Amino acid sequence: ALAKEREARQRPAAAAATTSPPLPDSWRAKPAPSSRGAMPSLSGAHRSILLARMFGVGLHLLSPLFWMLGFGRLALLLLLGGVGFARGGGALVHGAVPPMLRETERPPSKEEMDAAAGAGLYCVAGVRNFGPNLASEWAMALESLAFVCTYGKKNCLTNEMYRGELSLGKIAGLVWGKLREGVVAAETAATPVKLRPAVQRLRSAQWAFGFRNEHAHRTGEVHPLVV
Fold it and tell me: Cα separations (Å) of 93 from 55, 98, 110?
């Protein structure tokens, strides 16, 4: 009986020893510490700031090209100019671009410029996380290039441009196709309707003459039309 009574007294003491004391309220109110600070985001940034970063990326793409051609000083100048443009060129770009490329008439404020300078690749923290930030800068540059090529998402290329993922080849292909289409349309519009069949026959004759001329030079045959 005495052993059972002694065992019953020791159980609450053992349970109290294994239970950890509660944390103070001041400790509970603090968030969990983070090993890395959160990087500011450029999503939703002023359009002129995004255009300035696009020009910065473009200057950096040109820099190694000039370096390989032997223009080292110019390459270094382009490199530094790209960094300056990306970090603080938003206000300059806003005043230089045509109105169609401005989403708002309000230029970027100093606070917006400072926030953009501390985000993305063009800051010390961004260089430490180089890979993801480089991919992010390239994606933003492509989006800004598409914005420029579509005149601020207002021309006939807009729907096709923003259908699916953006790439440099896609943007170049759509712009080149539209330029070729515009040249052909301009030539057709400049030719009077009555003369268009005659122009087509003349082009066919020119093609046939050129083919005969080339065939005569290859075979050595003499043709009356070959001079």
Answer: 9, 10, 14
